[in-house]
Amino acid sequence: MSDSAAKGPPRLKERLESLCVEMIDKGILFSEALSHFEKSFITEYLSRKDGNLTRAAEGLGLHRNTLAKKIQLYKIKKSP
Length: 80
Description:
It is a single chain. The chain is 71% helix and 0% strand. It is an all-alpha fold. It has a domain at 34-80: Arc Repressor Mutant, subunit A (Orthogonal Bundle). Helix 3 (30-48) crosses helix 4 (53-60), helix 3 (30-48) packs across helix 5 and helix 4 packs across helix 5 (64-74). The chain starts with a helix and ends in a 6-residue tail after the last helix. The relative contact order is 0.11.
């Protein structure tokens, strides 16, 4: 068994660092990377809260109106 296989899957920090390297290598700007992350994070969190804006906003530490503006900005489709 290889040394990396013995360690198990990469930890979150290592996966994030690897993703950052890949994005930098591809010329993705910081502002673009931040927007993609924010959109993905909000989309996933909102999905886990079954589209409930109030519960999602609470869990994300945002005001409900701020979350609504971000949903509109990123054109996130709320789950039914």
